[in-house]
Design brief:
seven-stranded mixed β-sheet; 9 strands; globular
Length: 171
């Protein structure tokens, strides 16, 4: 099945000049979504993760069902101020300014094997920050997997873990 046929392109969203790749049409098609999860499972399982890490927010949609499939745990990387209890934060640079992500302080035990998931790899900034944050608390980050990669933005170059994507757009 060609998963690319189930991705909707939305021009000028969220602002003029941006072409947004929308996975909601993939999620709404049961056979395509099943195929996507199957492909992700095949690529993630060899890393033998203890936890799958979803990056806010569409990464949750990818990592949670995959964690159930693989029989491992699921945890969230969220924007600052969204998680209850004690958290660990990581601030990283954006093109114009900074952003902060966080995890719950007790979410990861040192040495746990993790794979990071998100719907889209663009510049790699958030995924790279997630790797750094997770390593900061002692995690063994094994890989990262994405449904879509905007390969022309070279985001995978910011990641020092194996990267798998199911769909690539070259422009």
């Amino acid at each position: 099945m060609d998963l690319k046929q189930h991705i909707r392109s939305v021009p000028d969203f969220p602002k003029p000049g941006i072409l947004f790749y929308d996975i909601s049409t993939l999620l709404a098609h049961p056979a395509a979504w099943q195929e996507c999860v199957d492909q992700l499972a095949a690529t993630v399982n060899p890393h033998k993760p203890d936890l799958l890490v979803g990056i806010e927010s569409r990464g949750f949609l990818t990592a949670a069902p995959l964690a159930l499939r693989l029989g491992c745990g699921f945890m969230m990387v969220r924007k600052k101020g969204k998680l209850p209890g004690k958290t660990v934060r990581f601030t990283y640079d954006l093109e114009y300014g900074t952003d902060t992500i966080e995890i719950q302080a007790d979410a990861v035990k040192p040495g746990q094997r993790l794979v990071i998931l998100d719907d889209l790899l663009a510049t790699g900034g958030t995924a790279s920050a997630a790797v750094a944050l997770l390593r900061q608390v002692g995690a063994d980050v094994r890989a990262a997997a994405f449904i879509i990669e905007l390969s022309f933005l070279d985001g995978r170059k910011k990641l020092d873990v194996p990267v798998t994507t199911l769909i690539a757009y070259d422009s």
